[in-house]
Amino acid sequence: MNSLVRKTLVVQLQAGDADRCPVLAHLGYDAADPFALTVVFSHDGRVLARWTLDREMVGDGLTRPVGVGDVRLRPESRGVWDELRVELLGDARPDGDRHRAVVFVWAAAVEAFLRETYDVVRPGQEEVCVDDFLAELMAEG
């Protein structure tokens, strides 16, 4: 069985007060890190940002607002389709606020991606081998 799931989606990025613009979101899941999803945002062949998200939180964000730190998710309806609104907070700006970007993703595409990850590792069946993790940390030190 394949332990990796990959999907590329066109999403809408809104930074600051600017209008939305389309960018690519390359989603990834690896059973070796069963709680995490990776997202790489790119435009015109350039990587804009890389984020690691909690898989359960992304699923919860499809139905209710979640997140209190650098990542906040909530469902939004745009008339004929539903979206997942992903707010990403970055480094501090000189004015004391933080850099902020909002990404809008078609909710059905996120649900389909999550279903594929659930085929690899079912929710509640995630396992992390702490002994291997600690051995790796000790080897680096």
Q: Report the helical percentage.
A: 10-25%
Instruction: Name the average pLDDT.
Output: 88
The biggest sheet, with number of strands, parallel, antiparallel or mixed sense and barrel status, is: 7 strands, antiparallel
Number of strand elements: 7
Overall body shape = globular
Q: Which class of secondary structure composition applies to the elements?
A: alpha+beta
* Strand residues, percent: over 45%
The helix count comes to 3
- Low-pLDDT stretches: none
Can you tell me about this structure?
It is a single chain. The chain has helices spanning 55-61, 107-120, 130-140; strands spanning 4-15, 21-30, 36-43, 46-54, 71-77, 82-92, 98-106. With 141 residues, it is of the alpha+beta class. It has a seven-stranded antiparallel sheet. β2 and β3 form a beta hairpin. The longest helix has 14 residues, at 107-120. The chain starts with a strand and ends with a helix. The mean pLDDT is 88.
Detail the topology: elements first, then pairings.
Elements: E1 4-15, E2 21-30, E3 36-43, E4 46-54, H1 55-61, E5 71-77, E6 82-92, E7 98-106, H2 107-120, H3 130-140
Antiparallel strand pairs: 1-2, 1-7, 2-3, 3-4, 5-6, 6-7
